[in-house]
Structures are given as C-alpha cells and as structure tokens.
Write a structure and sequence with these properties.
Blueprint (H helix, E strand, L loop, with lengths): L6 H6 L7 H19 L4 H23 L4 H5 L5 H8 L1 H8 L11 H11 L20 E3 L14 E4 L8 E4 L1 E3 L9 H14 L3 E2 L7 H6 L3 E5 L15 H8 L4 E7 L10 E3 L6 H7 L7 E3 L9 H14 L5 E5 L4 H14 L5 E5 L10 H6 L4 H14 L7 E5 L5 H9 L4 E4 L1 H7 L21 H4 L4 H25 L13 E4 L5 E3 H4 L7 H4 L4 H9 L10
Parallel strand pairs: 4-13, 5-6, 6-7, 7-10, 10-11, 11-12, 12-13
Antiparallel strand pairs: 1-14, 2-3, 8-9, 14-15
Helix pairs in contact: 2-3, 7-17, 7-19, 8-19, 12-13, 13-22, 16-19, 17-19
Length: about 550
C-alpha cells in the first residue's frame, strides 16, 4: 500500500493527527539531545526527560513497523492506551466498557471470542457462564448422554439443483457480502487469501469483482445488485455479454442476485461522483465524474416471473453455475409470489440467502437498521417453510446472514432452516476491526473500511490472512464439538427440537413450538396455517403487489 501513496501524502504523514504524538516525541528528543550537547551544565537535568522521550520515540517507531496490531500502525504510541485499558478491563469494565445491552452491534464477549480464535489464543473461560440463564430470551442447545466422536472432515454442503451443471461444494461457514470500496484493498486481499487457505467462499458484495479478489484466488460468490456493477451498460442496465465474460472465471463458483440487504432493505445507495476514483470507475463500470447509483429496485425485471427468468438467464450465462438470490424478507406475499413464479415457470434458484434486518456492516438510516425488514431467524424459517410448502426445499439451499459470529449462532440458524451461514462482522473482527463505528467516514483506525492508503497500510495482509483462516477453522472446530455433544454427526442433522428458549423466568419452550413447520406441499394443497394462509392468497406470480 505504501507504494500507492503519493509523495505529498508520504511527506505529510508526520503531521497527521494520528502520528502527532510520535512526531512531538521525536522533536522533543532531538531538542533535548541538542540542549545536552550544547551545554554540559544541564546534562544531568535533561538526562531523564531525554531517556523518556527517546524511549517513547523508539516505541512509536516500533509501532509503525510491527505487523500484529493495525491500530498501533495507525496510531503509534497513542493506541497503547487502548491495550492498557484492555489489561484492566476485568476490574473496570462495568465503568469503562459496554455490557451485553448497551446497543453495540456485538457484545464484548462475542468479539473477544472471535479475536482469540483468529489469533489462535486459548478461548476457554473459568467460573462458568456470565450470562443470566434465567433471563427472558436466554437460549440453549441440548446435549446428549451419548455424544458422538468429533467429525474429522470440514462440514460442507452441495449447492446446485437439477438445472445446475456445475454444482459447488460450499463450507457451512463463509464470508458474507462486503464490497471493495466499502473495504480497503488490503482487507479484500486478506479475506480472499484466508478463504483460499481455508477452502471456503468469499461473497464479493455488489461492488463487483476487483483485482484484489482475483489476486488471491479464493472461491468467490459474485453478487449482482441493482447497479449491475461489472456487468452494466452506460445507462445502468444489465449487460449480458459482460456478465458472461466475468462469470466464466473459474474463481467464481456461484452467482447471486441481490434483491435487498438487511441493513437497509428497499433503500438503494449512492457513491458521490467525488468519491468515484479511476479504480472504482473501472471495476464498477461507471463513468468518472458521475454518481455511482445503486437503485432501490431492479431494471432487469419487474415481476416475480421476470425475476425467475432473470435468474435462469444468470445460470445459463455463467455456464451452469449455481444461481440464486439474496433478500431480507419484507411483505410475506412478495416472497410467496416468487414461490408461485417458481411453480409457474418451472425455473428454480439453486440457493436463497436470507439476510436479517440485524445484518449489515455499512452505514444506513437509523430507522432502516432498527425497524425495517424481518429478523434473520424469522426470515430463514419463513423461507424454509415456504419452500417445503411448495415441494421445492430439496432442490434449493438456504444461506443465512445477520449477526452470526460463533458456532452456536451457526448451529441455531441451521436448526431453523439454514443450510449454511455467512458472517460479515465476524470476519471483520478477525481482520482487526475494533468496532469504532466509523466505517462510513473513511477514517477506520485499523485499515479495514477505508480507501485512504495511509490508513489501509496498517492492515498487513499475510498476518490477517492467517487470522481469517484461523477464525474460520476454530469456529468449525467449535461447531463440530457442539454437534458431537448433541449426539449428531453433521450440522444438517440439527432440528428445532435440539434448542430451547426462555420466554420468562418460568416459561421455557422448544424451538419446535416457536418455529412450527409446514408439511410438504401444504401451500399447494391449501394451508390452514395462519402465518401463510392470507399471504398465499394475496400472492401472484405476475406482480409483487398484493392481490385481493
């Protein structure tokens, strides 16, 4: 990254607020040495201050060149305050650090587990659980008195229905959609290199396939959003020829149509013209000096039937690779209209990724993040049951994304209908993200979510590659332990009966009661389930609008 920095940027580094402490210490050290050499009478007086500032300067230089801590590379000397507070956190956390309920995207304990697993540090805890097991909302997985041996092979799932010529064997735990542009070049490199090392998939996000994805050679899921970046005409419409050319890459294993995302479903987005660099212009296929727009809706289709035909075309153009779509569930009748379109056209996606409204690493309006769209678990179970109800569940795989970071999160999602899980923030933590909540400002302190080369240089690709791989490997190992403890052989064996939820201090319910199942073909035959009956009657394959 340093080679990409201009001469002016390099010269201005010492005067950046991030490096000002080191700069001051260096200047003071030089001045004190100069004073001592010019007047030996004050030597004794300035000796200790000189040693102190010289030591701080040496520490700062070490911070700049070390490769383990990105925040120290970006904030030499000053960032040590953070690590000091971490050391005293067990005694001071009630005063200085967040609790489980302070509104942070992930709790301190969850982030600590990810960091430890990424660094291959012992993640065992003394003195039992710190959770209140009698608190409303507490959930647990049942174990067996006859546990199974741990699985020796990585858990994988075959994605590709009868119409798919090139099915893909996917890990049950993969990197969720995060675009280049949102993430720095080094972050993309490290994620993709980690995916290659660990044999799992990396979703490109809708920003397109960048050279930083291609450089590392890891398996890719190419996400196509409403902006059709990387496969668009000058007017923003879909270009089939460009799509086929990119999708032909052996590195791309699946193609995914993004209908909506959990962080801001139905919103769309704009990257202002001033931020469209020559590089982003080339990768996304947008003009320099123009706003880079992701509309809230697709131009390539306007009906459920049209959407299925477009997915069928994506599969054909990609040479028969698995083709599917991602969405956050909104109006139930809209997804059921898609199901009716499957039945009417005979075109079925190979997979569906369900994004919960709790998902998303980027910036979005507060109301969208907190109150728009269906949460992941309800969405996954709704989609699972809908596919069972139209006799399509055996040919369509379901991915789940939305605040998934631990093996328990993966097991719980798979119990209610998911075949695999994607994680965004978990893998960001493995890169060194400290959740500073500055992703949208281009001032990320660890070089993960920035296009500023002076900040991105802090993220050292080889070290972070290992941590991405370690985190994936350790999470699957923990999943294997959970599955074996429950007396099962594979996560696909998990069922709702294996989990319980506390509704109150004394009321406990199995997931079988919280997430009841439809019987195969029930929607076609006519369902009596109140969750689906009215919405099914309102759904039409010819329109996304509700019909009376």
């Amino acid at each position: 990254m340093m080679s990409r920095m201009g001469l002016m940027e390099t010269l201005m580094l010492p005067f950046s607020p991030r490096f000002i402490v080191l700069t001051i210490c260096s200047v003071v050290t030089v001045l004190l040495i100069g004073i001592a050499l010019s007047d030996h009478k004050v030597f004794d007086l300035v000796l200790i201050p000189t040693l102190v500032f010289a030591g701080l300067t040496a520490l700062g230089i070490r911070d700049l060149v070390q490769k383990d801590h990105a925040v120290l590379r970006n904030y030499p000397i000053a960032a040590h305050l953070r690590f000091l507070l971490e050391e005293i956190r067990p005694e001071m956390r009630q005063y200085f650090f967040e609790s489980e309920k302070d509104g942070m995207p992930f709790s301190r304990d969850t982030r600590a587990v990810v960091y430890q697993r990424a660094k291959m540090v012992l993640d065992k805890r003394p003195f039992g659980t710190q959770k209140n097991v009698y608190e409303q909302g507490y959930e647990w997985m049942h174990h067996s008195v006859a546990p199974r041996p741990h699985a020796s092979e990585a858990f994988r799932i075959n994605v590709g229905g009868p119409d798919c010529a090139r099915p893909y064997s996917a890990s049950v735990f993969n990197i969720s959609a995060m675009s280049f542009g949102a993430l720095s070049p080094n972050a993309i490199r490290a994620l993709n290199a980690g995916a290659r090392k660990g044999g799992f998939a990396h979703d490109t996000g809708e920003g397109g396939v960048s050279p930083y994805h291609e450089e590392m050679g890891g398996d890719l899921i190419w996400e196509i959003g409403s902006g059709y970046f990387g496969c668009r005409n000058p007017d923003g419409s879909f270009n089939a020829e460009k799509f086929a050319k990119v999708a032909a890459s052996d590195q791309i294993k699946m193609v995914e149509l993004k209908v909506s995302q959990g962080a801001k479903p139905g919103h769309g987005g704009v990257l202002p013209a001033a931020k469209v660099s020559e590089e982003i212009s080339r990768i996304r296929g947008v003009g320099m000096g123009e706003d880079c727009i992701s509309p809230a809706y697709h131009k390539a289709f306007s009906t459920p039937v049209g959407m299925m035909e477009f997915i069928g075309e994506m599969r054909r153009l990609s040479g028969g690779k698995p083709a599917g779509f991602k969405l956050c569930i909104g109006h139930p009748w809209e997804f059921l209209a898609i199901c009716k379109a499957m039945l009417q056209t005979g075109i079925y996606p190979d997979f569906i990724v369900v994004d919960g409204n709790e998902g998303g690493t980027g910036a979005a309006p507060l109301e969208f993040m907190d109150h728009l769209g269906m949460p992941m678990r309800e969405g996954v179970n709704f989609v699972h049951n809908a596919l069972v109800g139209i006799n399509a569940r055996d040919r369509i795989k379901i991915g789940a994304s939305g605040k998934i970071a631990t093996a328990f999160d993966v097991a719980r999602a798979m119990a209610i209908g998911a075949d695999w899980c994607n994680s965004a923030r978990g893998f960001m933590f493995s890169l060194g993200c400290i959740q500073s909540l500055s992703c949208h400002t281009d001032r990320c302190p660890t070089g993960v979510t920035t296009q500023d080369p002076t900040r991105a240089r802090a993220l050292v690709v080889p070290q972070k590659t290992d941590r991405v791989h370690n985190y994936h490997q350790a999470t699957l190992h923990a999943l294997a332990e959970l599955i074996a403890a429950a007396g099962l052989d594979h996560p696909q064996d998990i069922r709702p009966i294996h989990f319980s939820h506390r509704d109150s201090g004394s009321d406990v319910h199995s997931f079988t009661r919280l997430y009841p199942s439809l019987r195969p073909g029930e929607l076609i035959d006519g369902t009596g389930d109140a969750r689906f009956r009215e919405a099914w009657n309102m759904a039409s394959a010819e329109t996304f609008a509700a019909v009376s």
